[in-house]
């Protein structure tokens, strides 16, 4: 009996376990592929952090002096 035959029997006998293994495989594979792609995007353009007084003024509605 070949490997594919055994795999088919396993999927028929244990569909929940087979689906769980498939989901786990995607969970291990996707971060290994997607993360380097996201890291390769240009992130040199950083947004400057606002001054704390501006943040407090925006939250409280009071204008800073």
Tell me what the structure shows.
- The mean pLDDT is 85.
- Helix 1 (3-13) packs across helix 2 (15-40).
- This protein has 65 residues and is mostly helical.
- It is elongated and about 75 Å long.
- Helix content is 71%, strand content 0%.
- The protein has helices at 3-13, 15-40, 52-60.
List keywords for this structure.
single chain; 65 residues; mainly alpha; 3 helices; 0% strand; Fiber protein Fb11; membrane; transmembrane; transmembrane helix; At2g46540-like
Quick description:
It is built from three helices and no strands. The chain is an all-alpha fold.
User: What overall geometry do the principal axes of the alpha carbons give?
Assistant: elongated
Our count of helices gives 3
Overall radius of gyration:
26 Å
Helix content: over 70%
Low-confidence blocks of residues:
none
How many strand segments? 0
Element string (H = helix, E = strand): HHH
The major sheet is characterized as: none
Classify the beta-strand content into a percent band: under 5%
Mean pLDDT: 85
User: Helix/strand/pairing class, anyone?
Assistant: mainly alpha
SSE blueprint and pairings:
Blueprint: H1 3-13, H2 15-40, H3 52-60
Helix pairs in contact: 1-2
């Amino acid at each position: 009996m070949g490997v594919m035959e055994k795999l088919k029997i396993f999927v028929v006998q244990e569909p929940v376990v087979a689906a769980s293994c498939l989901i786990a495989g995607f969970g291990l594979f996707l971060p290994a592929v997607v993360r380097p792609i996201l890291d390769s995007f240009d992130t040199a353009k950083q947004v400057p952090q606002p001054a704390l007084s501006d943040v407090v003024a925006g939250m409280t509605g009071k204008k800073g002096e």
